[in-house]
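User: My instructor asked us to take a sequence, write out its structure as C-alpha cells, and then describe one feature of it. I'm not sure where to start. Here is the sequence I was given:
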Amino acid sequence: MLAVAAALVSAGCGREQIRAYEVPKEAPPVRQAEAGGGALPPELQNLPPMPGLAWARLPDGWESKGPTGMRAGTFTMAGGDGQTAELAVIPLPGTGGTDLELVNLWRRQLSLEPIPEAELPAHTEAITAAGGPAKLFEIVADGARDATAGGQQMLVVALAREGTTWFFKLSGAAPAVAANRDKLKAFLEVVSFTAAARPELAAARVPTTAPTTGAPPLPDWTVPAGWQSEPPTQMVLARWAAGGAGAEGVVITVSAFPGDVGGLLANVNRWRREVGLPDIGAAELPASTGAVTTTVGAATLVDLRGTDTKTGQPARLIAAVVPHGGQTWFYKLKGGETVAEEQKAAFVQFVQSAKYAGG
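Assistant: Let's start with the prediction itself. The C-alpha cells for your sequence are:
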C-alpha cells in the first residue's frame, strides 16, 4: 500500500510512473449499467463506490483537468517566472503508511536523503482541510544529488476520511509551488468528497468489447477448486481465500495498473517489507526472482518467506508480475506457510491460465 501511494502521487517533475486513463465525470449508476445485460461476475458485485471530489470555488489561475485514472482530480496553475505546477488529488484506502515513511518516500523521489523522525516537525504544518484537521508536508530538492530534481518542490497534504486517505500533492518548479501555497490551503478549506458509481461495472457488462474508460476487463481464467470468492477492495479487481480463515489460510488478489507502477524492484521490495524482509538492490533482483510462462509471454515470480508485519505470525508471499498491453497485472498469494505451499502450484497454474483482452 505504501509503495502504491508513493507511485500514484509521484506526478510532476517528469517522474510520473503511472499513465492515467480517462474516467467519466458522471459514471452511470449501477442499475443503469445492469441494463447492458448479463449478471455481474462475483468479483465485481460488491465493489465500493469510487470517491469523488467537489469544491465550492477554484483559486484564480487554476484550471481543472478533471478526474483521470486513479486521480479524483488534476489541476494546473502558473507561478513565478512563468513556471508551472500541478496538483494531483488521489484517494487511497487505508492510511498509506506513517508520516515519516511517506515523507521519506517523497524525498527519495527528489533524490533527497531520508530524515529522522526528530526532523519531521520542521517539514510539517497543521492545517484545516474539508472541515477537519490535516497535515501539509513540504519537500524541496536542492539538486545536490540529482541535478534534474534541483529547484523542484512538493507540498503534500494528507487527510483521512471514512477509511480513505486523500493525498493532495502540489508539485513543480519551486517558485510556482511557493506562489500557490496559500491558494492550496484556501482550496482545501472548500473541498468536499462524494461517491460515484464505478465505471468497471459498465465495462464488465460487455466483455466482448474493449472498454475505453475505467479499469481493464478481467482476464478469462480458471479459478482453482477450493478458492472462495471474496469482495474485492478499491485497489483490487478480484480476491479469493483458501485454506480456511485466520493466519493459517491464504488470500489471493489480482490488481492491474497502467505503466510499470514504479518498476519491478520497487514492487519486490514492497512485498519484502510486508513479510519483514529488508530491501534488496537491483544487483540482487535476479537471484530473488524467478520466471513463469503465461499466455502473453514471460512473467516474474516472487516467493518470499518471513513474518507478517501486521500479525507477527510466520508468513509466505508468492506473487507474479505480468506486463501486458500497457498494464501491469499483479497476482499475489499471502498467508500461512503450510497452506501457501499447498496452494503454490494451483496459484501458478491460475496465473498461467489467464487469457487477456487483446492478448
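For the description part of your assignment, you could build on this observation: The longest strand covers residues 297-307. Try explaining in your own words what that tells you about the chain.
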